[in-house]
Amino acid sequence: MQYDYSKNRDEHPEPIKADVNGLIPEWLQGMLIRNGPGLFSLGETRYNHWFDGMALLHSFTIKKGEVTYRSKYLQGDTYNSNMQANRIVVSEMGTMAYPDPCKNIFSKVITFLSHTIPDFTDNCANNIIKYGNDYHATSETNYIRKIDPMTLETQEKVDYLKYLPVNIVASHTHYDKEGNSYSMGTCIAEKGKTKYTLFKVPGGSGSDGSPPLKSAEVVCTVPCRSLLTPSYYHSFGMTDNYFVFIEQPLKLDVLKMATAYLRGVSWASCMKFHPEDSTLIHLIDRKTKKEVGIKFYTGAMAVYHQVNAFEDDGHVVFDVICYDDNSLYEMFYLDKLKEQMGADTMYCKPKCKRFVLPLSDMVCYVVHNLVKLKYTTASAVKEKEGKVLCQGEVLCDGVELPRINYNFNGKKYRYSYMCCVDISPVATKIVKFDAETKQKIEWTGGDCFASEPVFIPRPDAVDEDDGVVLTCIINAKPVQGGFLLVLDGKSFKEVSRACIDVDFHMDMHGYFIPDMAQVSCISISSTGLAPFPRLSASPLSSHTHIAPCRPGEKETEG
């Protein structure tokens, strides 16, 4: 079973009605928008890395038990320039674009200068985020693109640098109950300093027609431990009172990036993992807007995704997906993906680790574990020089792209929903993981590839896992089309699937926009509604499997 990562996908801008098998709960109404690369070759030129492909947005609109689908390429400056030239003319992280050999020397000089002080791409192919009332496609450059969520039309180009001193911005954003958004970016060598900037965009910003980022506020800054080699990061954690930022030894060499074009290498080649360095864990107090005085660190690791973070009895607990090195990025070069199909390759399997940061008993040097929580084996030991060495507990392994019930973001939680990548980084099944019992429940559909699972809570639900999980499933046999899978959040059994006669592309991340009118209606009259029925698995070609516990653990019903 193979997925062709390098195949160009067609867009379907007009809505397509899905064939729904099973019953979609009537409270589930809204739109799931997802983002990922979909076009990898133009004319005689090809992208080197899967992450570099042109952004292809697609959406599933759920209304009154029916589903409609559409997809559209993000038509930013990068897309338009490439299409007009019928070749790749704008560089991406893993693919350096060189001028047409037929161009004159003046054009070649201009191209060289633009890469020495690069104006990055607006090919925002990683995620969908919300600032104020606006939705944006995003990657990790200083550019994002506003989109119309209903039509997927590309709208204004937004430059972070017009509002904030950030050259690179993380793909993942946090939100609080007031609708405020929180993001992190890196400011490189401004006034001789490189720093990480955490900023807030107030909820409702942009309601007067102005860009929401115009109202952005810097919450705090964290100095980089090295001026010209800032840490790469993809996400960060947030609790009620703290932000958690991991400064990992996966670093960008700024000087090498400035000369990459001249040396004939990609910007990605300037990103290097340093196993000899430690991983710094920065804890920022949301009230004082400053780092706490305790210096936490752990061994070298590469982290892309945070699962959740929360506070418990004088500790900050945070769960992350981590790797021993940066081989994951290397595996997604398109040539390597072709080689891996059906072959036994060395794969650095990710681990879901729990770290615990104690906030008390820090007066003097101690050699015993400062973590007092009984439910974890994670440890923290204060060393003579005052730093605290943290060792994480492995909760499970072979999982990626974690999502939770976001109502529990920053709070003590139990369940996460992830892609199962225990054999390769290509997911063929998804899992529900119970952090309390360490039990996994798996869903697999045979010859299918699964995308990031997204949990949608039932309105007015009490239980953490009361809701549904949505995931986009790619059929390994494209002639059969793909489908939007709906799973019951508790049993992890299939409730329904919306089949679309489209060859889906593999995407990365997405955002669910609820139909607020419907949510308000259900919320107001919820006492008169029958609870969402726990449907048994529908008679479709899929099954749910309760994975065995690890050796020495009891098997517990989830």
TrEMBL record:
Binding note for cofactor: Binds 1 Fe(2+) ion per subunit.
Source domain of life: Eukaryota
UniProt-listed Pfam families: RPE65 (PF03055)
Family named by the database record: Belongs to the carotenoid oxygenase family.
GO annotation (BP), single: retinal metabolic process
InterPro entries: Carotenoid_Oase
Protein name in the entry: Synaptic vesicle membrane protein VAT-1 homolog-like
Keywords, ordered alphabetically: Iron, Metal-binding
Alphabetized GO MF terms: beta-carotene 15,15'-dioxygenase activity; carotenoid dioxygenase activity; metal ion binding
Cofactor(s) listed in the protein's UniProt record: Fe(2+)
PANTHER family in UniProt: BETA-CAROTENE 15,15'-MONOOXYGENASE 1, BETA-CAROTENE DIOXYGENASE
Binding annotation for Fe cation: 172, 234, 305, 509
Region of interest (Disordered), ranges: 539-558
